[in-house]
Amino acid sequence: MTLNDPLATLPDDQLVRLAVRDERAFEALVTRHAPAIHRLAALTVGPGAADDVVQEVFIALHRGLKAFRGEAQLSTWLHRVTLNACYRALATRPTIPFDQALEPAAPHSPVRAGEQHDLRARLTHALGTLPPDQREAVTLREISGLEYAEIAALTGVELGTVKSRINRGRAALRDLLIRAGVRP
Questions:
Q1: What domains, with CATH codes, occur in the chain?
Q2: What confidence score (pLDDT) does residue 143 get?
């Protein structure tokens, strides 16, 4: 699909209806949403498992196209499916206590890239240590950039609960990262 493709300009609800019978429309949806889904998955389960999660999400989308009623935005539905797939992936993975996690190996690149890789690995691991409700709220806010009200609608909890989960999650992440030697 190219930028000149008329499908690229259609809103999600129209693409969903077309994608039931048109593979190009489905490809347009994948092209539009895959980067955000991959970013959310990579920061939730780590870059190594993110591709599997993304594949699972778009298989679920393809299977669910006919049943999608459009009561919520497609992006909201995709975030929920992504988080569910991430939680399934995390549930099957053995856990390692934060203080026993191995230092990630720096890639053969400039020092800055190695530091960023290390910080990203530590942050991903620290996110994995949060309670699921806090991890979900922090990830949806900080990684996906959703507004508090959107997170409340997506998770089915009150706005105040979302705010407190994000605050508690941020505080726990800050403490974990500081103890691990990461300074703000």
A1: 1-93 (1.10.1740.10), 97-184 (1.10.10.10)
A2: 78
